[in-house]
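Possible regression after last week's pipeline update?

I re-ran a chain I had predicted before the update to compare outputs. Posting the input and the new output here so someone can diff against the archived version. Not blocking, just want to make sure nothing changed silently.
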Amino acid sequence: MGYQNRVAVVGAGLTRFMRRAQETGKELCFEAARMALDAAGLRPRDVEAVVMATAPDVFDGVHMKGEYLADGAGGFRKPYMRSFVGGGSGVFAAIHGWYHVASGHFDTVLVVAEEKMSSCLPHPQAAFNGIYDQFLERPLGVNLLWIFALEMNRYMQVHKIPQETIALVSAKNKKNGLDHPCAQDGIPGDYTVEEIVGSEVMVWPVTRLMVSPVTDAAAAMVMVSERVAKRITDKPVWVKGVGWHLDSSYWTNRDLYYPKYVEYAARMAYDMAGITDPRREIDVVEAYDPFAYKELHHMEGLLLCDKGEAPRLLDKGVTQRNGELPVCPSGGLLGVGNPIAAAGLMKVAEIFWQLRGEAGARQVSRPVRTGLAQAWGDLMQVGTVVVLGV
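New output (post-update):
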């Protein structure tokens, strides 16, 4: 597939993660967009198009939320488009922005992702009931915790993994989150495996400290053509590959122990990036981790290890920030917070900062030239992957 432009990321911004933010969704978008533009040395008038990613309107309690957020995100008197693919939205927004620039239609695109989940009362889990089949599943009162517990249980049974091993992901990411300046209060921490396993059972085997929290925040990123990148920065981070895949929403027909949709999305991104051995060629990973087991699940789907091997790599310390393959050195969703669409774009921004050597206390110790951000969404059926490089 041929494209007219190479695409670079030249700036990123991220608001503080919190619950019940005093700012409106528009103000969160404005804050993140301004940080990204300042980092790129650009002004709103330099932006030719804006991409917005945000979850269903019910979260903010505002009908046609994309239109509502447009002026806060800088989408005034210029092309403005919203995309939403559940939890995969933040990474897909970066793919959406890449497409605009790679196609040759625009030279400078601002990508913004926002989520204000605390407005959804009594809890966003009630809203998630709406994604299920209205006849067979909704009457059971199901939510995402319910389905993730099924998937985690299946993963543990197939690979014979104890709950304590899954808890190691929470311990790692929550400790990493202590170094993130945007982390939500009370979310990062230096927890023991016993504390994580012994925390409140949400739906067995998922415990409270294995789940990312409800969060409000926004993230933004500036993507430009090679021509613009050469003019405004000497530290471009290039989009090497993008991939996405949508599986069937009939999740009951699939074996939940392995995310094929993530593998298909990863293969698409690797083919575009010319990556033939991701285990050796990817230096740092921001895998999607809304639940502790999902980091392991996704590492295997991303072909970074064999099926069932991720827990052993975790146990050996390979995925620690100073390990051979750092995974979620930012702290991820478990250690920073989970404003759904914004959390996905945060993953891409974290790889951007890692490749520039600008991740501060979160910077991994090994040299990095290629990084991967991934997200997943809806009824465990959406895979989105972005590979960045320098």
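Follow-up from reviewer: compared with the archived run. The two ends are 22 Å apart (CA to CA). Marking as no regression found.
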